[in-house]
Amino acid sequence: MQEMNEQKLWESLSYAEKNMRLFRQEKATLEMFLERRAITQEQFDQGLVALNRLLGVEAEA
To answer: Number of folded domains in the chain?
Structure first.
């Protein structure tokens, strides 16, 4: 049931809203990797640039 509601919500979002949600999820993953020292600050920064390029979303502070 919850999965169906999430699907309806996702479908109701605009293209830009979907991209922003994906950006935030991926940024959170990068932040987790950085906190656990699985990646360097440079790799984190490069990841944000790549996300911006792919999703057309400005990096958030």
So the answer is: 1
List all residues 6 or more positions away from 22 whose beta carbon is below 8 Å from its beta carbon: 55
Tell me which residue range forms the domain holding 23. 15-55
Cα of first residue to Cα of last residue in the chain, in angstroms, is 35
Tell me, yes or no, whether 26 lies in a domain: yes
Q: What is the DSSP letter of 36?
A: T
**pTM of the model as a whole:** 0.81
Q: What is the pLDDT of residues 23-50, one digit of tens each?
A: 999 999 999 999 999 999 999 999 999 9
